[in-house]
Structures
1.
Amino acid sequence: MQNNRPILTITGSDPAGGSGIQADIRTIAALGGYAVSAITSLTVQNTLGIQEFHDLPANVVQGQVEAIMNDVEPQTVKIGLIRTQETLQVIIDMLSKYNPRHVIYVPLMKSVQGERLVPTELAGEINFRLVPLCTMIIPSSEFQTHGEANTFASAAAFYLNEGIPADEALRRAHQWLDTHAIRPLGITSRSRELYQQFLRQLELHFRTNSDVNFYADSLNVAAGYLAQVTRRTAGLSPKAIIDDRIASEAARLLDNTRLTVQEIACKLNFSSQAHFCKFFRKQFAQTPTRYRKKL
């Protein structure tokens, strides 16, 4: 007979569902348990990574935890993303006050994309003040996929909550992860296809339009998402890719035509010859005239 006590997960929210609160609830529910939660941080995030953090005020985190602890008294607590000293203090106070039987902590310091999740100085304080209060620490490693350590910890929390000894709980969590977890994240990003679409649009319009928002609008995506895609795929911003294409065309026209610099500036939709010369100098560290003379 399964334990009817819920498991409290305290961590951040991942809108893409691969980690955070969403993954905890999904994992615990899939195993037959019941998850209750307190969110520490809201992220602007998708399959390409995190764009923004919005850390909840510590008193809001405290309110969530107390509402759950006072009402349903979970004896197993899983802790993930902590980004502020104030939230850390709330969690430490909660553990001291309610003394849950099992406290599982996943030290989330960096994302799988290498993004820093927790300030360095706070990471040291977590290790010094929070870790000694935990009954199980589940670190993540660099070959793990997004959310894998989180999912494993949620499974371990479920088995511990069932009264299974720690070693056996870890064994079962490993077994469950190997046979049931979806790896990698079970949704498909459109980023590769979108990048190719962007390049096709660029080839059609670079002579008349250099505005990133124009290309984002033509692809029906936010400019910020387009920037994520190009940086992840090519290591460059959309503007840099656009400027590179315009610069290569400018160099080609200077190399292979008798058009004047002013005519080339007009052909590439620059507002003036001076504007074109300033752009060219930035790209090639020389003026168009000097570039042509060297040829």
Note: The two ends are 83 Å apart (CA to CA).
2.
Amino acid sequence: MNAGRRPAAGQVRIIGGRWRGTRLPVPEVPGLRPSSDRVRETLFNWLAPVLPGARVLDLFAGTGALGLEALSRGAHGAVLVEADPRAAQALAAALARLQAGAQAQLVQADALRWLESAAAREAPFDVAFVDPPFAAGLWPAVLERLPARLTADAWLYLESPAALAPALPAEWALHREGRTREVRYALYRRVTLGADSHAGPELA
């Protein structure tokens, strides 16, 4: 979810996989503007080799477009964290319609508080999507807490305003990035000693 000048309304669609073409509602929530089809299509082309069997985290889920797209394309499971009650309610209805309850866990909670909770420590994530409300400036706080919840060779997707590239620790190597008029979108790979001994798939 990211920040726009006004609430968004309407629908977004899942682009590929078993739920291809499924429409997801976009509730009228201030600051909610889902990632565009173009951005998501590019991102999931980048991630195609690593999604099958992956455990993913959609930290500011909004419509759930990122987490559900990952499941549609073969991810094993997803945790979708959303603080706004209206967005969470719409997302719960979408999960029920898709019968995704066995794979998708919806958590209505503040993202930072959830990252510090016991529930966030249950199992590490292979892929994390971080697309917070732009105006809140949450990237430093999230990036301080998130790495402890990820695998040693995890992939991290960040969305931010076009002119802003959030600072990441040295353990994160930029894999690919792109920009639209309003948004910078970037995919990083965690590079640690642990990753050397248990490397996941490489992306083109």
Note: The domain at 10-197 is CATH 3.40.50.150 (Rossmann fold).
3.
Amino acid sequence: MESQNIPSGLKKPSIAIACGGSGGHLFPGVAIAEEFSDFGIPVELFITSKKVDEAGVSTLKDIKVHKLPGQPFSLRSLPGFLYSFLASYLECSRLLAITRPKAMIATGSFACLGPVLAARKVGAKIYLHEANSIPGRAVRMLASKVDRIYHFFPRIEKRLPEASCLRLGMPVRRQFEPFDSMACRLQLGLNSDGPTLLVMGGSQGARPINRFLVQNILGLQAAIPNLQIIHITGPFDLADSLALQKRKDVHLKIISRPFLTEMEFAYGASNVALCRSGASTIAELAAMRVPSILVPYPQSADGHQALNAKLVADSGAALLCPQHELQLDRIVPQLKKLFFDQSVRSAMIDQLAHWHFPDSAARVAEDILSHLGIHGKRQTPEFVFTRKKASES
């Protein structure tokens, strides 16, 4: 292959990423953006104005962030969705006409439609990432019109026969790797030892899981007396969790947060998680090797969380508890097994490794760059682009 340097006076090609709407859609986009930045390629993120998006990008450096209106699709709120879609499309069209990115990557949320259509208008290649076991509406709608779809769960290609699919796993942020549990606990203000349970929903929290904890705290305390709990409540149930810490009959150490940007410390401190089964959560549990009890959200689109959880549980990488069975007499035996049965813990940790793709974000970025015919060295002061000869494109 013959390399040709782009003259220094020419603008470097850039990449746009639409990844807002929820933590599960945001964080894979952030992970991919960081990989492109390592190649010295300008990146711009398109997110929504939701608080979870704003918190998730608050620590980013050298990456442009654009906030767009965004509202989930539903027949009940169709006018609001159409208005936010049109406003998003027009704003993206204005911005992308200036930056003219070589590619748009979208992580499949309702917020990606406007950016993707605007990117097509300026001639950008389009790539999607489907995180869940059942493709979402936006991905199904766009599947035949994009250049490639990357995915996490196996056999997605059977649901998207018209698309070019490639399984490269679920991108997670770089900080998600096993940490020293004692250091993580001390960082969060927990005791350095003792069984530690992480309770959380998705980025918005999960009210049934939060209520289970609050209503059954004394039962959990009696069953596992030295238990300590990290409770990520979401924005609505923080007060109830904080109230547990003031009760004289509750003697457990409890750390309550509505949202935690440094989730790696929460995973690193925990022996077990009780949580939803969104794809990002599963990927982060796998990266951090945290055994879990998965409680799928029953109203997830097309039941994808139930299938996510089933596939992971069937592989031996988690336990599954349907939400209607979220009761103390079911959860306590499962918690004791995951906390104290070393053979069960070890087997589950071994299976979690099969759900972790440590280089997922890098492989997505490299595949896109290869497809675009752009090559360069990672983490160098002076980035040099090369292009394939036309005959090799």
Note: Residues 181-355 form a domain with the Rossmann fold fold (CATH 3.40.50.2000).
